[in-house]
């Protein structure tokens, strides 16, 4: 019996020692969010606030400390991704495979686009952003498998690219000429070439379940954590 | 004999390599959707029988799980689930003629309404009871091929028909569940209650910190901060019938109350689980008291496990101690087992090989239902 326990302890010790060490990001501070399941975060079109897609069926506009400024007027079902430009706020309803387009002035839905995806309901599109290099929307299915889809501005599918290098993806953003993907299960931030989607760098993020990422115009990084209900702030990280 | 076991396992592993991995599928229509998924787990089981034993019928391949599940949402607020395990299409006890199929064929069949979110979600149908974290956790979320003895369903019913209220608070870190059920476990599927006509009442509260703690015994995310969870649960019923295959205490003719707690933690690939459960039974049939000067007897046990997910090896290593005493009036009736498990994750967590070895710490295995030490190798595919 002692031999059994010793062998188990040895295996566990060896495996612990062999854990892959990579670059890490450290949050500067964090803010409590007063909403349920904050999934994704994006910078507003004017750069003065953030939008958060929440699993409680609404989108919220918050300031940079996570304080709620406005709540969306429309009740979705399962918002998991959000992106905003100067004209609209785009919220992806993962389960209903739908992009609800909000007017940022009223925060009400002005139009919707149905997306075609027959994968698992709760493993649909978790990441949405605009790829400024290729001028297309990018949506990424969460897992099993991770697939990156390119759509035009009217959400007509352009291309479908397998990205087997990722086990799971929960958020996307485009900043400083790069595409950034976040995996909440891997707790890793990836920097990608927006042309061919090859990974150029990556960082471990010591945040539990970081489902959303956004950069402000000064290069500060924001991450939303679904399980912790918090907004993490990284002051101008060296990326 | 050793060569024999190794050969059988080698053939089994070769067969497993041929398996393909599929994905789940979902269909969306307006504000409704339906999703199809399932699982197949096939085991090879080898028991280390004492030399005197000539009946080795438990050694062989077994269809552990052949599950097909339909889940969906209707008009945003109605959720439903129909979950069938075809491995139970044929009853394990073929001498029982009162069932054409094992009632455990249906794993879950319920509808829930989430339109009263400020109050609670209301769930009606046949469902898992919110009692014992080890019981609630899905088999696919555990590195072991079999649950700890106390949580396997013979000491208390794991499923029943009834109505349950679910309420999540604090960003799902606080989860409160309470319900009333027929109280006959899988036997409730027959449609009638027993002569008492009384119900089973169960309640459970889970609290986790600093973030939500999902019902999983894996830490595949290699969580960078320690996350903790504690849970307490209780149940009460008064019945006029006995049920239970191995210990006859799943339901008793009399009063049965149960209570327990668990503490869990995960960090950097490690997970730890500890759970203790105890049941107090006041039988109407005094013969069950074995002539002792008391009006009740106790059953109880614990489960303690530690798992480690080694990402670079796609492997999970686990060790578990579990203990059960089904009747405190019977001397030396406690069984203590230590189990070792190894999982190799072939395609993320969707396809994996699971190996479990049971080692009994008590040598007195002459009486049923305690089984000899055993080795089980299984292949699990979720689709």
Taking all Cα atoms into account, the compactness measure Rg of chain A is: 18 Å
- Which shape of chain B, going by the Cα principal axes? globular
The most extensive contact between chains is: A-B, 42 and 45 residues
Q: Strands of the largest sheet of chain B, in order across it?
A: 2-3-4-5-6-7-8-9-10-11-12-13-14-15-16-17
**Rg for CA atoms of chain B:** 21 Å
Count of helical segments of chain A?
A: 1
Helix percentage range of chain B: under 10%
Biggest β-sheet strands, sense, barrel of chain B: 16 strands, antiparallel, barrel
Amount of beta strand of chain B = over 45%
Q: Enumerate the spans of chain B where pLDDT stays under 50 for 5 or more consecutive residues.
A: 10-23
Number of strand elements of chain A: 20
Order of helices and strands of chain A: HEEEEEEEEEEEEEEEEEEEE
N-C termini distance of chain A: 50 Å
List the main descriptive attributes of the protein structure presented here:
heterodimer, A: 239 residues, mainly beta, four-stranded antiparallel β-sheet, 1 helix, 20 strands, 7% helix, 46% strand, globular, B: 383 residues, 16-stranded antiparallel barrel, 2 helices
SSE map:
The complex is a heterodimer of chains A (239) and B (383).
Chain A (H helix, E strand, L loop, with lengths): L1 H16 L11 E4 L5 E6 L6 E5 L4 E4 L5 E4 L7 E6 L4 E5 L4 E6 L4 E7 L10 E7 L4 E6 L5 E5 L5 E6 L8 E5 L2 E6 L4 E5 L6 E6 L5 E6 L5 E5 L4 E5 L5
Antiparallel strand pairs in A: 1-20, 2-3, 3-4, 4-5, 6-7, 7-8, 8-9, 10-11, 11-12, 12-13, 14-15, 15-16, 16-17, 18-19, 19-20
Chain B lengths: L1 H16 L7 E5 L2 E16 L12 E15 L3 E8 L20 E8 L7 E8 L4 H4 L22 E11 L4 E8 L18 E10 L17 E13 L14 E14 L2 E14 L13 E14 L4 E11 L9 E13 L3 E10 L13 E9 L1
Antiparallel strand pairs in B: 1-2, 2-3, 2-17, 3-4, 4-5, 5-6, 6-7, 7-8, 8-9, 9-10, 10-11, 11-12, 12-13, 13-14, 14-15, 15-16, 16-17
């Amino acid at each position: 019996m002692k031999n059994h326990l010793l062998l188990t302890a040895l295996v566990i010790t060896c495996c612990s020692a062999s854990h892959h060490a990579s670059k890490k990001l450290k949050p500067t501070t964090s803010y409590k969010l007063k909403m349920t399941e904050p999934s994704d975060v994006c910078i507003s079109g004017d750069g003065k606030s953030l939008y958060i897609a929440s699993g409680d069926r609404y989108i919220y506009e918050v300031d940079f400390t996570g304080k709620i400024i406005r709540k969306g007027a429309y009740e979705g079902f399962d918002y998991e991704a959000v992106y905003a430009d100067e004209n609209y706020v785009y919220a992806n309803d993962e389960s209903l495979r739908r992009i609800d387009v909000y007017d940022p002035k009223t925060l009400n839905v002005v139009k919707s686009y149905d997306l075609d995806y027959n994968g698992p309901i709760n493993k649909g599109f978790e990441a949405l952003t605009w790829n400024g290099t290729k001028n297309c929307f990018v949506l990424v299915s969460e897992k099993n498998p991770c697939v990156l889809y390119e759509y035009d501005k009217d959400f007509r599918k352009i291309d479908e690219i397998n990205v087997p290098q990722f086990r799971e993806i929960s958020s996307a953003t485009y900043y400083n000429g790069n595409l950034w993907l976040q995996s909440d299960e891997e707790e890793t931030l990836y920097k990608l070439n927006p042309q061919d989607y090859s990974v150029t760098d990556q960082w471990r993020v010591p945040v539990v379940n970081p489902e959303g990422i956004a950069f402000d115009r000064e290069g500060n990084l924001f991450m939303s954590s679904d399980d912790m209900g918090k907004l993490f702030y990284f002051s101008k990280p060296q990326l | 004999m050793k060569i024999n076991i190794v050969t059988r396992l080698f053939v089994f592993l070769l067969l497993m390599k041929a398996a393909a991995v599929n994905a789940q599928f979902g269909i969306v229509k307006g504000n409704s959707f339906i999703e199809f998924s399932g699982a197949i787990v096939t085991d090879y089981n080898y028991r280390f029988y004492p030399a005197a034993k000539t009946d080795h019928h438990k050694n062989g391949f077994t269809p552990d799980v052949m599950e097909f599940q339909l889940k969906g949402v209707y008009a945003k607020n109605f959720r439903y689930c129909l979950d069938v395990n075809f491995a139970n299409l044929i009853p394990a006890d073929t001498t029982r003629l009162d069932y054409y199929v094992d009632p455990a064929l249906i794993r879950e069949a319920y509808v829930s309404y989430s339109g009263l979110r400020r109050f609670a979600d209301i769930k009606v149908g046949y469902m898992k009871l919110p009692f014992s974290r080890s019981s609630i956790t899905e088999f696919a979320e555990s590195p072991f091929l079999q649950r700890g003895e106390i949580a396997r369903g013979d000491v208390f019913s794991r499923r029943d028909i009834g109505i349950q209220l679910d309420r999540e608070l604090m960003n799902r870190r606080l989860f409160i569940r309470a319900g009333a059920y027929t109280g006959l476990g899988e036997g409730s599927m027959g449609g009638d209650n027993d002569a008492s006509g009384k119900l089973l009442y169960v309640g459970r509260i889970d609290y986790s910190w600093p973030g939500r703690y999902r019902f999983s015994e894996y830490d595949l995310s290699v969580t960078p901060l320690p996350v903790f969870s504690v849970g307490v649960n209780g149940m009460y019923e008064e019945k006029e019938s006995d049920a239970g295959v191995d210990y006859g205490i799943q339901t008793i003719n009399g009063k049965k109350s149960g209570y327990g707690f668990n503490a869990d933690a995960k960090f950097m690939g490690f997970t730890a689980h500890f759970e203790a459960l105890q049941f107090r039974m006041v039988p109407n049939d005094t013969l069950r008291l074995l002539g002792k000067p008391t009006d009740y007897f106790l059953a109880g046990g614990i489960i303690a496990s530690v798992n480690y997910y080694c990402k670079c090896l796609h492997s999970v290593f686990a060790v578990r101690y579990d203990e059960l005493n089904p009747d405190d009036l019977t001397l030396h009736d406690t069984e203590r087992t230590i189990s070792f498990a190894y999982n190799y994750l072939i395609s993320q967590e969707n396809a994996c090989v699971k190996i479990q070895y049971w080692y009994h710490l008590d040598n007195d295995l002459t009486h049923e239902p305690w089984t000899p030490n055993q080795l089980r190798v299984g292949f699990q595919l979720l689709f």
